[in-house]
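To: structure subgroup
Subject: Chain for Friday's discussion

All,

I'm putting the inputs and outputs inline so they're searchable in the archive.
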Amino acid sequence: IPFMALKWMSDGKEYYSILANACGYILIELMSDTLTVLDTETMMEDPHQRMTFTNWNSDLETGDYITPVRVSRAISTPGMVDRFYLDILGSQEIFKETYEDGVSVLEITPPNSKVHVQFWSGKSTSDDFTVADYENYVNSVHEDVMVSGVCGFDQWIDNHIAIDTHSSPTLDEVAEIFEAEGYYYHWWKVVIEEEKSHQPAGDMYQIYAADETGWGVQLDFPFHNPPADTPTYAATCQSEDGCLGQGNCKAEFYAILENM
């Protein structure tokens, strides 16, 4: 498995990372403050603080388990996603910095979460296909497919993290803003047939939304008045349109999809 070993500083303490290309485009970063095999002298030094250990998921698993502490994303422009995550969702800013080499980072915790989300920008790794090119492409797919809050669900929107909260904001509140400001989003209803420890039986609602970069986020928030025509979907293909999973759409929509 291809990997790169890094050493970096946070609040005066040295930490170590292994960036591993597990498969395809999947990149996993393993972090620790100790080394048992690698020699620190052979590791590449990263001048950027890769993690801020404030309000973080410090309840670490023991043994052979790993604990999720951070998700990192590239964005084309600093401040690009501030409206979505800080203003609309109410995330907390943990760290914000622009380094001497022009690299900038925004680090946040979403509502009711201690897993950090970072947004890095400022240093292109390719002139052939830039971060902006990627964002434009993904958003162009959303534009073609996600035609309303109950119709259209492309593959890119399903490449997401999930944010769970039992307080605020509500799905109704964020959906109103998404609609008014032109964000791509989709309501789903999930039928819980048996009561579980964290979820009573009945109907549960979710919204999948795309931030300004096109990246999808699953929102498991409280709800009050979901749309009456919210489509139901399950991984077992128990949905309004079989396994297509596009929601409540008109026949013309599927005809357009077939010609794409």
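Points worth raising on Friday:
DSSP finds four helices and twelve strands in the chain.
Residues 131-145 form the longest helix (15 residues).

D.
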